[in-house]
Amino acid sequence: MSDSATGDAHRVAGDAGRADATGRVARDLDQVTAGAGDGTRAVRAGLPEPAKYEPTLPGPVFAAHYHLPGEPTGPYAYGRDENPTWTLLERAVGELEAPGQDGVETLVFASGMAAISAVLFSQLRAGDVCVLPDDGYQALPLVRAQLEAYGIEVRTAPTGGDAQLGVLDGAKLLWIETPSNPGLDVCDIRRLAKAAHARGALVAVDNTLATPLGQRPLELGADFAVASGTKQLTGHGDILLGYVVGRNPEAMAAVRRWRKIVGAIPGPMEAWLAHRSIATLQMRVDRQSATALAVAEALRERPEVTGLRYPGLPDDPAHKIAARQMRRYGCVVSFSLPTRARAERFLDALRLVDDATSFGGVRSTAERRGRWGGDAVPEGFIRLSVGAEDPEDLVADVLRALDASAA
Ligand SMILES: *Cc1c(COP(=O)(O)O)cnc(C)c1O
């Protein structure tokens, strides 16, 4: 037992021994999957080269420190800085977010918010200007208040409609979230990145909802792809995780330094579970987005449903832009029922959909988003995350619950 655990640690460490002085790993294994399809890439992403008697995906390496005689050089010295299980997961995420791209670095974090904060707080200084969405993830207003407390000017713009273009002058960083959570608006990453770069601003995209199989922000011109791996990337609703992928070495060195300072690191077990889960990402995302479209199509026929949004619906206001930059449209459908009471009865009546927050898991969940406060949504607004159930079962459950809630 301890022999094989040690063997894994050594082999992974040896494998990552090709890392350069900053700990960045040569991504030569990426060549195996660079030209492959998404399913092939997902099952092989980040795996070490096969070695006799070793597992395909080495188990989690539990280490606060590593044997380190002499000068403290090399990739693995202390557990807050590096871990071989992270290294493999970081390679996997990098291969999915930026297949075949050289010079891309990935860092994993304890949560999506840890990753988001790492980019914002490592890139911005007092006096800098940052542009945030005003309809994005519900913790962004908290982040905004903290940025302002540090003397950073924050401007906001809605996700859709290109209003970001009007507030970019003098900005150091443009933050976009597309599709946005929970409103599912979409912005044109290519267009905004071009405009931001023309003004000398960096661009970060929150890619949580799309996942790297839905959209690849770096290919569309962004400097950072940032996401919560808590959602569909890992997909089972059992771990929190975040990541940052970037191609600018100085910017990424600052993000790495921030992770070291704050220590917002994932545990090895979470990192390993995440890597294991990524093997099924293509199957889950394909299944869940196909079913999400079926659910959206069924909801479209219902007179009590208003404000229905799903970027994959051909008549959705965001579909045109989404179709240009997304390869899959995600598992979240949002809509409103006429009243808060109606929405609560609907959620109560669902049998296959748990009333819970978060999204992206294999079991469908839904919630009345207004219960949290913070999001500018109607009282009857529902965010529905479509899981891996059989589509006909799920559609039938949703329609039955709508009928049952009419009373
Ligand atoms: C959930 C979420 C986050 C935060 O991720 P955590 O893992 O919960 O910290 C950030 N952005 C979006 C779009 C999210 O949905």
Automatic annotation (TrEMBL):
Keyword Transferase appears in the UniProt entry: yes
Pfam families for this protein: Cys_Met_Meta_PP (PF01053)
Keywords: Pyridoxal phosphate, Transferase
Record's GO cellular component terms: cytoplasm
Composition skew (Low complexity), residue ranges: 14-24
EC assignment: 2.5.1.48
Positions of modified residues (N6-(pyridoxal phosphate)lysine): K231
Family indicated by similarity: Belongs to the trans-sulfuration enzymes family.
Descriptive protein name: Cystathionine gamma-synthase
The species this protein was found in: Streptomyces chartreusis NRRL 3882
Gene this protein is translated from: metB_2
